[in-house]
Write a structure and sequence with these properties.
With about 280 residues, the chain is of the alpha+beta class. About 30% of the residues lie in helices and about 25% in strands. It has two domains: about 1-165, Uridine Diphospho-n-acetylenolpyruvylglucosamine Reductase, domain 3 (2-Layer Sandwich), CATH 3.30.465; about 175-275, CO dehydrogenase flavoprotein, C-terminal domain (Enolase-like, domain 1). It binds flavin-adenine dinucleotide.
């Protein structure tokens, strides 16, 4: 294994251009699992962990900027993230255990592109923007366009994730909800993971709604059919039942070692129902 260490962004981009086959290394909690299995033998690793600027989280006029190297711990305790984007703080709190949260980064979570990435439903409903950088320049990719499939992103050759931009919605949602369902309360990969934002009018009609589920398709899914069905409707049992009947159009869970398709469908339905019925 060959290790390249970048001291700053310029050096990282220069090295990545020269060694386009290199695997970027952030916290290593995903990548280094391959060490024991021999998957990293003969590989070139580009260590980004010294890019201190990329670990920063800062409040912006529009919301919050989270550098790609910000750890899940830094995110879950950050006052601006907690107050303005609570679902992201909550989801970071559920990742692995404290050691993984201290080491694992948001950029690594996204680039790893697991269908079960726990930050993804929150990033989906907050409609995050992913900022990328390469030797050729910078790009902003809507979160909805960052995944190409299981463990696949739309990052281009030589491109790194620099950070994540979160914009505060123009009106505050009246309800925000996050739930992760795994085998245990901690150190468990999701069977299903949910995030939702709801805006209700005074007469209880739905002004706007954003719902997302992870671990139920090749990558995180916004529940577009359910959202459309509920928008403009009074949030009553009839409207909720009608909307939930569309669930199978929005998600496509499978049987795997962690769960079954049927269980994931049932739990997803229950998570949405309890979010919509919460007071
Ligand atoms: C015991 C254990 C429990 C876990 N539990 C959970 C869990 O509950 N929920 C969950 O979602 N995840 C979990 N994970 C997975 C992992 O911890 C997270 O995905 C973490 O956020 C990865 O971040 P990292 O910095 O460690 O990434 P790394 O391992 O450094 O990198 C991961 C991937 O991203 C690429 N990469 C890293 N940074 C960049 C960048 N800036 N630009 C482009 N590519 C980049 C790497 O090349 C690699 O392919 C767990 C892992 C372990 C080992």
């Amino acid at each position: 294994m060959k290790l390249l260490t970048a001291r700053d962004e310029r050096e990282a981009l220069r090295l990545y251009k020269r060694y386009p086959e290199a695997l970027p290394l952030a916290g290593g909690t995903d990548l280094m699992v391959g060490w024991n299995t021999g998957r990293l033998n003969g590989k070139t690793i580009l260590d980004l962990s010294r890019l201190k600027d990329w670990a920063r989280i800062r409040e912006t006029p529009m919301g919050v900027w989270i550098g790609a190297l910000a750890t899940h711990t830094a995110i879950r305790v950050h006052p601006a993230v907690k107050s303005r984007f609570p679902l992201l703080a909550e989801s970071s709190e559920t990742i692995g255990g404290r050691q993984i949260q201290n080491q694992g980064t948001l950029g690594g979570n996204i680039a790893n592109a697991s269908p079960a990435g726990d930050t993804f439903p929150a990033l989906a409903v907050y409609e995050a923007k992913i900022h990328t950088v390469s030797d050729a320049g910078r790009r902003v990719v809507p979160f909805s366009e960052i995944f190409a499939g299981v463990k696949q992103t739309t990052l281009q050759k030589g491109e790194l994730i620099e950070g994540v931009e979160l914009t505060t919605p123009s009106t505050e949602p009246c309800r925000q909800g996050f739930r992760k369902v795994g085998t245990r309360a901690a150190q468990a990969i999701s069977k299903t993971v949910f995030a939702g934002l709801l805006w209700l009018n005074k007469d209880r009609t739905v002004d706007d709604i954003r719902l997302a589920l992870g671990s139920v398709a090749t990558s995180v899914r916004r529940l577009e059919h359910i959202e459309t069905s509920l928008t403009g409707q009074k949030l009553d049992p009839k409207a909720i039942t009608r909307a939930l009947n569309l669930l199978s159009r929005d998600i496509h869970p499978i049987d795997d070692i962690r769960s079954t398709r049927d269980y994931r469908m049932l739990v997803s339905r229950n998570l949405i129902t309890s979010f919509l019925n919460a007071r």
